[in-house]
Write a structure and sequence with these properties.
metal ion binding; Creatine Amidinohydrolase, Chain A, domain 1; protease; manganese; six-stranded mixed sheet; three-stranded antiparallel sheet; Creatine Amidinohydrolase; 2 domains; alpha+beta; PepQ_N; metalloprotease
Length: 430
């Protein structure tokens, strides 16, 4: 999409947000709302702060990730006012804000102070943000009922948000392609991470989350957080779960690649890929997201049978006896937006058979979800299964050969449309 068209969509997005917020404020008796962008706390006993990315509602309006000590004031029937913290400081630079059409919708002011602005006639005021930063600000701090309704304003994405998410996918996919090439060329986890950052042109501190880059058995740790600087002796597998933040919006993509000598593992990846695409095709208005999760377990059971990893049980029994939860222990996905695990996904608790599921809603147009089935060889889960009464149904020799590959995860970002879905991760590049 041309940049000018995107900027026009942003103005439409802000008009929509103004209406949504005015309705939520009126519902709870507030005349105005002050949103704190937040700030990074300092590490204990240190003069260095943690990296900062911004409070969700502030990003929803502005997309300005990383801007600390800023304040946004929303009032019914008035232009929003944004105070940007721009201190006179020779230690640090103030980022330059490019001139864009949204600044005709939001009045932008500069402030040399990190403190909340003094408001003229705020009326009944709510203040939301990090409690440590708003505790002394006049107004009702983080009212629960209002916060719940504001979370709901982020559930159905505007056209602008969907285009930002699409661009975040395009940028991340370029990084994933280069990461795969680096793996096949024999790079270490650290080297693959550098290649990904170079291709996406985004520092890891600015990315939506810490990239997961696991080679061999490390691919079996779901949120593996370290990077070996030396390549393994035999490159058997790569799992990379990495995204990009674009104008505040996040992509969240996972790909798995088998090493050159791993034909059995490559076949498993192919089987999970086929299941993954069928699950993506299930995304549509009215579909219960929990059912997609359960379909994933049925597919994993079929894959266990077809590959000979489990025998002597039908697919239904493999699910009912909990075997699939050993090989696929996490949920099928979550909401996606200005936060990777976006808000309002669980109005009801997850079912007992899916305790880690982050989304329990029926799908509606405008929602954006991830679909991420997995298939892992995790020692802490496998050993009790192998040693228990169900161990006789498992192919120990084949599991022994494959467990050094760690695991597989494949993840796409999918929009619920009026008639079905749009896969942002698989669409043609713009």
């Amino acid at each position: 999409m041309p940049h000018d068209a995107l900027l026009s969509l942003q103005t439409d997005h802000l008009n929509e947000l103004q209406g949504r917020y005015e309705s939520a404020m009126a519902e709870h008796g507030y005349d105005s709302l002050l949103i704190a962008s937040g700030a990074a706390p300092y590490r204990y006993g240190d003069d260095q702060a943690w990296h900062f990315q911004g409070y969700g509602p502030f990003l929803h309006w502005t997309g300005l990730a990383g801007r600390e000590h800023c304040w946004l004031w929303i009032r019914a029937g008035h232009r929003p006012v944004l105070w940007l913290f721009e201190p006179v400081d020779f230690w640090h630079a103030n980022p330059v804000l490019p001139e864009e059409p949204w600044q005709t919708f939001i009045e932008v002011r500069s402030s040399a102070s990190p403190r909340a602005p003094l408001l003229d006639d705020p009326g009944s005021l709510a203040v939301i943000g990090d409690p440590a930063l708003i505790s002394n600000v006049p107004g009702d701090a983080n009212p629960d009922d209002l916060l719940r309704d504001l979370d709901e304003t982020r559930v159905r994405k505007t056209a602008y948000e969907i285009e930002c998410l699409a661009q975040a996918n395009r940028l991340a996919l370029a990084g994933h392609a280069v990461a795969r090439e680096a793996f096949l060329a024999g790079e270490s986890e650290f080297g693959i991470n550098l290649a990904y950052q170079q291709a996406t042109r985004q520092r890891e501190a600015e990315a939506p989350y810490h990239s997961i880059i696991g080679l061999n058995e490390h691919a079996g740790t779901l949120h593996y957080q370290y990077y070996d600087t030396q390549p393994p002796g035999q490159p058997r597998s790569l799992l990379i779960d990495a995204g990009v933040r674009y104008r505040g919006y996040c992509s969240d993509i996972t790909r798995t690649t088998a090493g050159p000598e791993e034909s059995h593992f490559a076949a498993l990846i192919h089987g999970l890929e086929r299941l993954h695409l069928r699950l993506c095709d299930m995304v549509a208005p009215g579909v219960d997201y929990i059912e997609i999760h359960r379909k994933a377990h049925q597919g994993v059971a079929t894959l266990l049978s077809a590959t000979g990893l489990v025998s002597g049980l039908d697919d239904e029994a493999i699910v009912d006896k909990g075997i699939t939860r050993v090989f696929f222990p996490h949920g099928i996905g979550h909401f996606l937006g200005v936060q990777v695990h976006d808000v309002a996904g669980k109005p009801t608790p997850p079912p007992e058979d899916a305790p880690f599921l982050r989304l329990t809603r029926r799908l509606e147009p405008g929602m954006v979800v991830t679909i991420e089935p997995g298939f892992y060889f995790i020692p802490s889960l496998l050993e009790p299964l192998l040693e228990g009464e169900l161990g006789s149904y498992l192919n120990r020799e084949l599991i022994g050969r494959l467990r050094g590959c760690g695991g597989i995860r494949i993840e796409d970002n999918v929009v619920v449309t009026a008639t079905g879905s749009q896969n942002l991760t698989r669409q043609d590049p713009a």
